[in-house]
Amino acid sequence: MNYRINNLHRPIDSKPEAYEAEIEKITGLKAGDYTWRRHRESVDARKGRTMRFTAAVDIITDKKVRKNKQILPVKEAPYDLSPIETTERPVVVGAGPAGLFCAWVLAKRGMAPILLERGDAVEDRVKKVEAFWETGELDPESNVQFGEGGAGTFSDGKLTSRSKDPRGRTVLELFSRLAEDESILYKKKPHVGTDALRKVLVLLRKELEHMGAEIHFRTALKSMAKDKEGYLLTTNKGDFRAKYVVLALGHSARDSFFMLHEKGVAMEQKPFAVGFRIEEPQAAINESQYGDMCRFLPAADYSLTAKVEEKGVYTFCMCPGGKVVAAASEEGGVVTNGMSYKARDGENANAAVLVTVDHTTYGEGVLAGVEFQRKIEQKVFAMTKSYKAPIESASSYLYGEETAAVTPTYKPGTFFADLHTIYPEELDRALTAGLKDMGRRFPALIEKAILTAPETRSSSPVRITRDSASLESISHENLYPAGEGAGYAGGIVSSAIDGMRVAEKIIEKEKNHVRN
Ligand code: FAD
Q1: Is the ipTM of this complex over 0.95?
Q2: Where is the FAD-dependent protein C-terminal domain (predicted)?
């Protein structure tokens, strides 16, 4: 039998085996009667208590266990991967988390897909991105946004999601297996880091190909037409035909958004967020979050929300021990974001500080948000006619005072500027008020902090509207928008889950079609 035991604790400076005494006390089992593993573990750092780890553990035993409120039998249904009989091969456009997990489910279930990805395979992509950071030479098809693995490849690889969808467990199990990292399954906030992610992607590609999936890199969808036989997809590498098409394009596929809009695919604008990257000493964050105990614990994170009238201001995508990265995908535009390695051992922490933006700022029109992002990115590029990013210390931005700040990590370089000139006044006012408010409550955020601009690609400015039950485009049958670019997910795990849901709908539809 499998049981879950909740609410176990161990001291911060102890080894995980410390749980065994508690397991045996609660269950009445003896060492050797059972095997166990952590199901969930987090740091309990509530004020006024001694800091400790708190966990739920799963045990397997064929012995009888005592009755206790803390012990529950585990009955988790396995994710359905039963194959179907068909010769249909869906085309999945985009090899980010949504496209890859959609392709993985389709392949497992006997619908070996054809995957089209505009960027390079991850090995070549890494070379292109590193060259861009060193020299400022951008490859618009293969960069931090585009290429195998999608937008999150050069990231902290946070695998957190607010979704309670049970598919999330399947996503984490795949990451855990390919990264050979059990902690992904039990940490409250698991992360893999960009270095481990790159290895996972190579293994996932091999697994997909082994299951019959066909992957075409440097192959960008350029146009699309529908006739009696299904979809005709035009790419720079020739035409593809398919009955079912998945659009897992991510939030930066601007040329594709314009093309789809022109072809009459139903889309709508949606609010998103813009702002700066803030970078401060990781040691100050550790100290502030954990005090003396920080020497026993991994690099600390934070997540803050400010109280600002009218607009939401918050931190996002915090990267402990990470770097600020140049994340442009279009020539002539500057974009920032953040990433970390698995070890999270850089000197600086960084996070986005964002304000929500909607049609009241950028106007009406389905693609008005895209144009707004582009305008900001191009305005910053025009300041030096290069991909260098403007920086200002937080104390200068907020109070007009210069104090010592960390060295910025952004490459290919930075220059000092007045960051109040980047965004329209109402957004800048909100960012200033929000950052002041967060700094008052969490001084480590702004003391010695540097701001780097602009952060414009935190989420999609459009939604490719779909039916909530069938997940098909409301304008085009058998066309399935998926993931962040479709406006239905945000983050690696939720995009992967969305890709899986879309794959299930295609399988369901094909099964019914074959049956009838
Ligand atoms: P994407 O990952 O954007 O993938 C879309 C893919 O489609 C791309 O590979 C693109 O090249 C391809 N494509 C686009 N147009 C075409 C076309 N016309 N033809 C063919 N291919 C096309 N999220 C987290 O959860 N944790 C993090 O730590 C994290 N950090 C991030 C750090 C950075 C630097 C960035 C940029 C994002 C980060 N995110 C993070 C967000 C996360 O990466 C995205 O939410 C997620 O990747 C979205 O998945 P997706 O599959 O929907 O789209």
Answers
A1: yes
A2: 271-458
